[in-house]
Each structure stands twice: as C-alpha cells, then as structure tokens.
Amino acid sequence: MSRRKEIRLNAFNMASPGHAWAGLWAHPRDTAADYNTLDYWVNLARTAERGLFDGIFIADVFGVYDVYAGSPEAALVSAAQTPDIDPTLVVPSMAQATRHIGFGVTANLTYEHPYQFARRFATLDHLTNGRVGWNVVTGYLDSAARGMGQAANRAHDARYEAAEDFLAALYKLWEGSWEDDAVRRDRAGRIFTDPAKVHRIRHDGPYYQVDGIQLAEPSPQRTPVLYQAGTSGRGRLFAARHAEAIFLNGQTRPILAEAVQAVRRAAGDVGRDPYDIHMFAGATVIVAPTRAEALDRLADYAQYVHTAGQLALLSGWTGVDLSTLDPEEAISYVKSNAIQSTLENLTLRSAAPLKVKDLATLSAIGARAPFIVGAPGEVAEALISWVEDTDIDGFNLNRLVSPETLEAFIDLVVPELQDRGVYKTAYAEGTLREKLSPGRGARLPQTHPAAAFRRAPAATPARHRLATGA
Fold first, then answer.
1. Beta 191-193 vs 102-108: how paired, if at all?
2. Which of 146, 215, 230, 419 lies 20 to 30 A from 380 at CA?
3. pLDDT over 70 for what percent of the chain?
4. pTM here?
5. Distance CA 364, CA 157 (A)
6. Residue 410 and residue 230: Cα distance in Å, rounded?
7. Angle (nearest 5°) at CA 51 between 36 and 397
8. Has residue 32 got a pLDDT over 50?
C-alpha cells in the first residue's frame, strides 16, 4: 500500500462579519462581529497554530454584492462579505502572537500599481519573518470598478492579461532590483546599502509601467508564496504558470478531480512540475463527539443562514441575478464576466440541475465544495478519501460559527488525522514556502518564471567599498 500524503490545512476566514455563509454572525456563540478588533485575529492565529494549521487564509473582495435585485441591500442586512476591512493590516499582529503559522492574504491587483504593491508585500514578508503569501486576484464585481471611477470591470480574460503584466513588473522589483548582499549594515564603514548592488527597474508593459528601484530591501522570501483560485480556461493557464498553491471548489469528487487534473496538465505544459503546486479544496466541516450531536449542530447552524444574503453572494460570484428566478427553478449556464468556474460547476458540470432555493442552504449543494458532518473518525476518513479520490493536497476549512467550529475541528479531528499518519505532529522550521515545500528553499525555484528576473552578483566599485558617507 502506498504511503498516504500529509494533509494540509488552512483556516479560511475573511475580514468581515460574514464569509462563506451569510448570516451566521448572528448565531449566539459566534464572535465574527468582532472582526474589526485585533483580539479577534490574534485569538484566531493562536487557535489555528495550536492545531498545527499550515496557514490562515484571508479571503477578500473589493466592492459590494449588488447584483442580486440590483441592490446591495441583502448583502448589507446579512453582512454578506460587507462590511470588510483591509486584511493586510491584521497580519502583523497575528504574526507577533505566533511563530509558525503562515498567512495567505487576498489582494486585488486591478486597482493597484506594482511599485507600491511590491513594497507592501515585502513589508509583510519582513514583519512575518517570511510567513506571508499573496492570493492573486483580479476582481469580479462591477461595483468595485464604479467605486474606482470606471464604468465596469475588465473583461474576464483581459483581467488575466493585465495580471500577467502586473506580475512581470513585480518579479522585476522583488527578484531583480536588489542583489542578495546589497544591504551591508556596515556601521564601521558607515554604509548601509551598496549602491552598485541596487538596480533601477524599467517595465513598459501594456497595462503597467515602472521606472524605479524597489523601495524595500529583500525580504526572507523575496516573492511571497503565490496563491491563486482561477480554474476557468484562462485562469488555469495563469495559475499553472505562476501559482504555488491553488484553491478549488467542486461539490462532487468528479468535478474536483477534473479541476485538479486540468491544472496539473497545464502546469506540465508550461514546463513546471505539476506537483510543485499544492491544491486546496474549500470544505465545510461540522464535527461533534457523536454523529447525532454533529447533525444537531448542523440543524442549529442552518437556522441562521440568511437566504437573501446567500443568494446575494452567489449572484455576485456567478454574475447572475438570482432574484429574477423562481426558487424552484434550476440555475442555467450563461456567459458572464464574474467567476466563470463557479457557474460552470453549478450548471455544466453538475450531475443534476440545481434549484435556486437549494443553493442558499447549509448543505453540500450550497457549499459548492466538500461538505462533511459527523463524528471525529467519520470526518477524518471523509477528508482522507477526498484527498485520495481527487489528488488534492489539503483543505481550506470554511468559517462557520467562529471560533466554535475551528476549535471543534482542532480538538476532535486533528488527533484522528495524526493517529492515521496523515497530519503533522510538529511544525518544521523555516519560511512559509519552506514549510509547504520542504527542501526547496525560501525563494521561488529556478523553474518558476520569476527566476528569469534575478541578477548575477555585481562587482562593487572601489569608491563604494571605501565610502564613509562624510
């Protein structure tokens, strides 16, 4: 029998009172209404690290969900990912309170510029001692475009073309602007940085232009760990080229397995080892000491899911105004400018037509991903079987009632996974990249496109070796 792979886990959260399930903030034991306090985030980080999680992945969205009924009302009432705060700003406090856990931060590049963005994430990498990753997203809400003074979001495939340009500029700044030994911190010689080893970056792309040196000195990983969630046709090509970890959804094993295979094939086509990319599936897990108690907990949670708020989320994700459909009507595929893979999974890849009313329930259909309810052993075996049947590497565990569901998973499921030899019993040392890919170093491998922008060491002119600053 072949050795089972080690399962990886992220605590999937959002800097908002509502995340994957609209309305659960109202549950009497939920603390997500405190999302705008540092105590909430520090407690989350400590809890997840106690469970030896690989990371805390913070989702984010730029804009509000106003596709449903042409209004943000349902999203606002139910706190469906609205309001939200900037997730980058809570990371340093979590990092100070922990030692090992990584932080995957979603940031939309469409309304950023590479020059300022490069400094922000280099800063996070410094302050976390190399424990930060960036989930590369391009956005899908027209409300964000309007808020930024534009008529509408870029077309779906054009967003990825812009992302290619954005990343090319970032790679030049992160990997090519400062040589490894540029910073000397030479007190006796009064030289902090050797100017000969710092290089001006020029990037003249179709979407972005840069002319300047990277503002931050090289951070432990230089380029943060790169996450991505695109599984549409164009998204797969982008992810296969750049991503080190990919987040996927799929409400059935065949849907998820097909998505994993497609990404791995695409990675091979661009010259990368397909298993250099870690695949994380979204998952909703409800566990209790017995199956009966877990089912009771499911029924309890389900009462708080806000139907209109959940449909507002789905309308934003799919680009389809679900308020115009009868609840008993099956959702149909239409070409949209939103998240194409979400709508394809719910329609073209679904084994049976999915009714609108079912999409707003706390269920496998509503989850759009693995949905597991049971006693600890049942849950552990289900997670293992999803890994073995689909070739994923681990899970993004959706936030339900916070921190109750995360604590229950750590206390009840983690020991079961450890007993089965599929989950670590201690953290490895190193950066987030070194923990995810042991033995490969803190920086991106030479097979990654970012490596093309690295510079050979430059000789230091005598005037800089002897400079005193006087």
1. unpaired
2. 230
3. 96
4. 0.93
5. 30
6. 29
7. 65
8. yes
